[in-house]
């Protein structure tokens, strides 16, 4: 496949998206990122599918060149500018920037081009995702470059994490895990909650995030574990409390994720879902409206919890935070149950 520096030549983005370097200044890692992404998208597409790469005027050059590369991989591809009507059998690949607000438009595969030199697949419909082989690699591609500066950007959120842990009422001596712990901002508060006789584990899928947690000294509060939140290596009913900040909306299948968290939590144990911004405030920050299918909307989350083994006890969604606390019921149900 051809080098990918030319894919991005002379593209200029606005709205907090930087001008993209030309082929001569694109790094080896950036060229490799584009090569990996195109190969991964091609692998997701059925051989017989008609494919539309869609964006807007800002992303049109990237859409055009991505379409060219996919044609080279023997895919039937065309481009479209905006939410044009598509055929029922079309597979729609949508390129997203921070400036986009048309989240209601159809999207079978969504690719972040906030930084066009480092694109990341952010969403794949279940019909194409298969066993989700794309998810681990693309999650790491998204979070790894951000790990070193994550606390610089978000470090002032730690008091909000501590308050959320306090409201979870995790008892001393408990076994608690922060699933999707990132740089470990909740780990000191979890250690304070369970005390010296308790156990705390921080689990994350991205090695660079765990390295940042160690650099921040948070490994003294918890054991750090590299693993997928969708398949945590814990025995059934082995935890008393699970804390998850910003996790559920990153999972390709929130119901399956919640059922797995129920599996590892003992009956009567607690689950805390948290984010240091409310849903509406977070959507505004990203320049988009609230999605009607948001799994964290109260009616949807209540139903998701009920069918995956949880009882939703607390739901709080003001501008300054999102907090939902649930209790593990006696028997977990399947995601489709």
Q: How would you characterize the overall build of this protein?
A:
32% of the residues lie in helices and 22% in strands. The chain is built from eleven helices and twelve strands. The strands form two sheets. It has a seven-stranded mixed sheet with strand order 8-7-6-9-10-12-11, sandwiched between helices. A five-stranded mixed sheet has the order 2-1-3-4-5. A hairpin with a 7-residue loop joins strand 4 (109-112) and strand 5. The model is unreliable at 1-22 (pLDDT under 50).
In short:
This protein has helices at about 30-45, 60-70, 125-130, 135-145, 145-155, 160-170, 185-195, 205-215, 255-265, 280-285, 300-305, and strands at about 50-55, 75-80, 90-95, 110, 120-125, 175-180, 200-205, 225, 240-245, 265-275, 310-315, 320-330.
Mean pLDDT: 86
Task: Give me the oligomer status.
Answer: single chain
Can you give the helix content as a percent range?
A: 25-40%
* End-to-end C-alpha gap: 45 Å
Look at the helices and sheets and give the structural class. alpha/beta
Q: pLDDT under 50 segments (min length 5)?
A: 1-22
Shape descriptor reads globular
Please indicate the percent range of residues in DSSP E strands (runs of 2 or more): 15-25%
Tally of helical segments? 11
Query: Largest sheet at a glance?
Result: 7 strands, mixed
Radius of gyration: 21 Å
Order of helices and strands: HEHEEEEHHHHEHEHEEHEHHEE
Count all strands and give the number.
12
The main sheet orders its strands as 8-7-6-9-10-12-11
């Amino acid at each position: 496949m051809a080098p990918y520096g030319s894919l991005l030549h002379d593209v200029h983005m606005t709205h907090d998206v930087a001008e993209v370097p030309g082929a001569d200044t694109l790094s080896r890692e950036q060229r490799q990122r584009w090569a990996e992404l195109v190969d991964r998208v091609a692998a997701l597409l059925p051989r017989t599918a008609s494919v539309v790469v869609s964006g807007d005027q800002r992303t049109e050059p990237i859409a055009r060149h991505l379409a060219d590369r996919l044609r080279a991989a023997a895919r039937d591809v065309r481009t479209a500018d905006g939410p044009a009507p598509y055929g029922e059998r079309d597979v729609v690949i949508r390129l997203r920037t921070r400036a986009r607000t048309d989240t209601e438009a159809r999207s079978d595969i969504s690719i972040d081009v906030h930084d066009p030199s480092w694109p990341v697949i952010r969403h794949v419909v279940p019909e194409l995702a298969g066993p989700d082989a794309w998810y681990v690699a693309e999650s790491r591609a998204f979070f790894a470059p951000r790990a070193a500066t994550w606390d610089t950007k978000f470090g002032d959120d730690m008091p909000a994490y501590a308050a959320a842990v306090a409201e979870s009422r995790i008892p001393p001596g408990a076994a608690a895990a922060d699933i999707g712990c990132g740089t470990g901002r909740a780990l000191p508060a979890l250690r304070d909650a369970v005390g010296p006789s308790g156990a705390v584990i921080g689990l994350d899928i991205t090695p660079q995030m765990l390295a940042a947690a160690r650099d921040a000294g948070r490994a003294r509060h918890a054991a750090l574990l590299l693993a997928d939140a969708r398949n945590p290596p814990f025995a059934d009913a082995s935890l008393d409390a699970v804390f998850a900040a910003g996790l559920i909306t990153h999972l390709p299948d929130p119901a399956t994720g919640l059922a797995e968290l129920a599996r590892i939590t003992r009956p009567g144990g607690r689950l805390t879902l948290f984010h240091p911004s409310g849903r509406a405030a977070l959507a505004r920050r990203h320049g988009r409206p609230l999605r009607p299918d948001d799994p964290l909307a109260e009616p949807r989350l209540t139903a998701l919890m009920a069918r995956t083994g949880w009882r939703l006890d607390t739901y709080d969604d003001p501008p300054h935070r999102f907090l939902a606390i649930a209790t593990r019921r006696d028997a977990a149900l399947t995601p489709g149950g």
